[in-house]
Amino acid sequence: MDYLGQQLVNGLTLGGVYALIALGYTLVYGVLQILNFAHGDVYMIGAFLGFFAMTWLGGPLAPTVPVALMLLVMFLVAMMGTGLLGIVIERFAYRPLRNSTRIAPLISALGVSILLQNGALLIFSPSIRSYDTSSYIPSTSGFSIGQVTIDSVRLGVLVLSAVLMVLLTRWVNGTQVGRAMRAIAYDKDAAVMMGIDVDKVIRWTFFVGAALAGAAGVMNGLLLRGVSGTMGLIPGLKGFTAAVIGGIGSVPGAMLGGLLLGVIESLAQGYLSTNFADTITFILLITFMLFKPNGILGRPMMVKV
Amino acid sequence: MASSALALTGLVAIATPAKAVTCTGTIAIMAPLTGGAAFIGKEQAGFAKVAIDAVNAKSGSTFDFKELDTQLDAAVASSLAPSVVSDKKIIGVVGPAGSQEVLAIGGLFGANDIALVSPSATRTNLTAGTYPSFFRPIGNDAVQAPTGARYMVQTLKAREVVVIEEKTAYGTGLANEMMAELKKLGVKATKLVVNEKNADYAAVVTRVPKTADFVYVTFQVAAKSESVAQELIKQKKKAVVFGSDGSDSPTFKTPGTFLTAFAPDVSNLPAAKAAFDAFKVKTGAAAATTFGPPTYVAAQVIAEAAVRVCEAGKTADRASVLAEIKKTNIKKSILGKAIRFTATGDVIGGTFPVFKTQKDGTRKTVG
Predict the structure, then answer these.
(1) Do A274 and B167 touch (CB under 8 A)?
(2) What residues of chain B lie within 8 A of the CB of A145, using their CB?
(3) How far apart are CA A98 and CA B260, in angstroms?
(4) Do B242 and B280 lie in a common domain?
(5) What chain B residue is nearest to A154 in terms of C-alpha separation?
(6) What is the pLDDT of residues B146-171, one digit of tens each?
(7) Which of B34, B161, B208, B308 has the fewest CB atoms within 10 Å, counting from its CB?
(8) ipTM strictly over 0.90?
(9) pLDDT digit string (tens) for A152-170?
């Protein structure tokens, strides 16, 4: 039981990170029906921004401010930075192609992904940067429930993921921009006719989705320590998989898909094989695409004929 | 400037040839100059350059030095290999650093008589006869695995060990050697296999039994070893990480962990002092790890072999340099021991010292 409990904790933490990445995919798809394949690299940029913010504040060995403040600044810098990056990506890579064929934004997204990855390698160098988390958050801190241990970093990631998901849900359901976003997702033409500023709402969508990816990037750095220019590919694909599992275009679906994927991955490593986590992830993707393409919480799209 | 000249003077004494010769050619290094293992490659390149400068100064030769970045990636090494083969000025190659790279290019280089003298590729079967132009001045995993296993079992009294095999040419070979050794020593040993792209080891560490004494890791990137070490602490497991030479980096610094490296810490050896001084002056680095000195020796082997060819009145080309490398007999290298090769390219008498990480993150030789 304790073994299962520990794997569930591992999985939920990982799933929280995947959920935040998946939300970015699903928000953009819900509004624009495009897949933003540059999203994994936005997550990578977020991890770097968090690292540089930490370095600016003295680094892991000698922070010049209290650790809690340093962490807050790291998250804010990463989220604001990637949010703005999201807006720039939308403005130059997607908006000009809004009225073109469906494949054009996809190709543009791949181009942006390659640009971001190679840009990061060139500017930041290919060396792996380490958050060196244990230098300022001891690995022994945390608590246990029976034999199940939850260290402080994992606990923080779990709580913060949950808080961000709740805030996003309230934003989507309770704010004017959120309602406008849902209206555009439902019927863009009607939304325009109702006077909704579509460009502004799309900018907000990209900003929020990218900011969540930035937060996920910092979480990854704190949890897994290493940050590099190529770190965005696999988590990006897994975030996409999570969005598909949950139902691409569905915000609750992306959250559920992310958590589910993290748990399945951990349980697969825990009970089947430590070598096949990625294989199982993509088998799941193919399975859902074949048998339940709308995902768990997605709804079939109605098209007027 | 003065310190550089002084260091070079000290190094001239180490390089053995005494007669000035006119000898030219390019000695290349294939190393991870960028990427996750860049600290290894940069150090290796620095020491190789220092060695070539020393031989040039001692013998009057004018060898050039060329750096080739493989990122410790077999595919990248394969893409660079044709350019090395077609550049006839290259008379020998220091490296590559990783066993998987040797597997990728060893055949091509062997067919073209290009000597590969690697200071860090330790997979045992690289010297099984398949790569006739491959040499290494360091021990191989058939030495590393028993050294680590015996130290864990006989010195540290381990009764149960978990081996984490990273699915690479290096990791798989070493893990298999270690499992065989542990079974011979009568210790309970289990193996967990992970993909090279894996980033989160929490689920893997959860599988480590609470009764395990050590987790032997075969990563080539030390950050992964550190990640496992910290995760063991977080999950309150008693097991301690025991790494291989791939973990030898300042990034792997959890106190109480162990590792084997293919060279002792020679920074305090009188024979190595000049090399270290010259390296620090040339690169601005404050210190070096155990990856540097074997690279010095590797470059020295190639350069001195070429000088011997020239001293015999011939032109130093690939085939003649390769033939001469087989006759290498450096009586006292900066590693503190003689360098001679077996018929298949292994150094005679290769060893793997054991280090323990101290509270301040430094390493102390313990075995």
Answers:
(1) no
(2) none
(3) 58
(4) no
(5) B234
(6) 999 999 999 999 999 999 999 998 89
(7) B34
(8) no
(9) 998 899 899 999 989 998 9
